[in-house]
Amino acid sequence: MTASLSLATPLPVAQPDPRNVVVNIQGLNKYYGEFHVLRDIDLTVHEGERIVLCGPSGSGKSTLIRCINQLEVAEKGSIRVYDTDLAANHRAAAQVRSEIGMVFQHFNLFPHMSVLDNCTLAPMSVRGLSRQEAEERARFYLNKVGIENQAGKYPSQLSGGQQQRVAIARALCMKPKIMLFDEPTSALDPEMVAEVLDVLVKLADTGMTMLCVTHEMGFARQVAQRVLFLDGGQVIEDSPPEAFFNNPQSARAKGFLAQILH
Amino acid sequence: MTFDDLLAMFVNPELLERYGPRFVDGLLVTGKLVAISFTLGAVLGLLLALARMSKSQLLQRLAAGYIYFFRGSPLLAQLFLLYYGLGSLKSFWQDVGLWWFFRDAWFCTLLAFTLNTAAYQAEIFRGSLLAVAPGQYEAAKALSLKRSTTFFKVILPQSLIVAIGPLGNELILMIKASAIASLVTIYDLMGVTKLAFSRSFDFQIYLWAAVLYLLIVEIVRRSLKHIEARLGRHLR
């Protein structure tokens, strides 16, 4: 288990400056055909902020973070990441995407590559690292997530929790400035949720800017500075976790919390 | 009937001595013909599959039309169309400097086989590319991989595992279909068989041919099994 893993050396992330705006979203609207997924979303994320997004299924939370990573393109509104307008300049947008790491619900590891190769592919082909440098970096992060000894295995030989930790290490190998998590524990067996959340908590301690779609409310309480509650494509609540959990403002958030907190 | 008589019905040493070397040559010609056209067909087929899946309507339609034509008409007809049809435009080919190509049965056969198998392989590749999970494309995008890296390092290796079975099938069909090359003066395995039979009138010649085709197919089958195991080593 990762509980035994110490983070004696912190992950090498520069000290975050909370005055810096890293993501600035204004008037974002997105449709899937007739379905209006995101309605007039405004969101500002500062450096080092840890934001949990929650809300009922279909509320647009995944779509929102996928828009930040350009996996989805919104019809209206603007997204600026590190002052780069994603819609304006294709090349600059591609550049800024490489500063964003993403972890998916279903891991999306490359099944035909070993754990190590999964982690070295992008640093070598995008960042231009030599194999040796890339492997060194990969082993460093695999060590951080507690699976360095599985580096030679294929993803299918690992448990779900281990695969998700590899996926986190793979994203970190690009040394991103922002990490996006799209329900990182939703596809896991219950006993594997903890080992992944453990890694996320440690990552949060390094000052990484994180946006995490999750329904792990304990995690939200422990780690998040802001909880965003989405419903019907709108941000209904945006408040610190204590305020959100103890005193939700909207009826919808109250209903939602009653459903998921037993 | 003694054992020697029986043996002579199937493997007559005299016949074997006379036609054996020709059969070896024929075997090599068949092997070369299929190997070259199948390989070129794979490259063309992959490009056609990509064209069929491209965003451009024009490319999609052109590729679809090509595949429709070459899958929808007999290989024999395509070969004759190339060799006798295009071959009859002698002065035109001489003008454009391609007569050396179209007067040669070997080149025409190679071309016909390549164009034909490309159509089938395109459909195999298209299906196998569609079989790769969309999450793989997303992960590659999220890692900012270039499109070429995504295709060659992430997508193609996974789709080949799906494609290898049908590709093997197509290869085996090609080996057997290559016998029609003998109809345009090529001395492939079938060509030498017909020649040997027309001189000896001994039916065992056809038996040899059948066994030799079987042998090639068996070699291919075993190699494919080997390749399949290698490509899918992460699945064990």
Automatic annotation (TrEMBL), chain B:
The chain crosses the membrane at residues 33-51, 63-86, 98-120, 177-197, 203-220. It is a multi-pass membrane protein. Residues 27-224 form the ABC transmembrane type-1 domain. It is found in: Cell inner membrane; Cell membrane. CDD domains: TM_PBP2. Pfam families: BPD_transp_1 (PF00528). PROSITE patterns: ABC_TM1. Keywords: Amino-acid transport, Cell inner membrane, Cell membrane, Membrane, Transmembrane, Transmembrane helix, Transport. Gene3D superfamilies: MetI-like (1.10.3720.10). It comes from the Bacteria. The keyword Transmembrane helix applies. Belongs to the binding-protein-dependent transport system permease family. HisMQ subfamily. This is Arginine ABC transporter permease protein ArtM. The lineage of its organism: Bacteria, Pseudomonadati, Pseudomonadota, Gammaproteobacteria, Pseudomonadales.
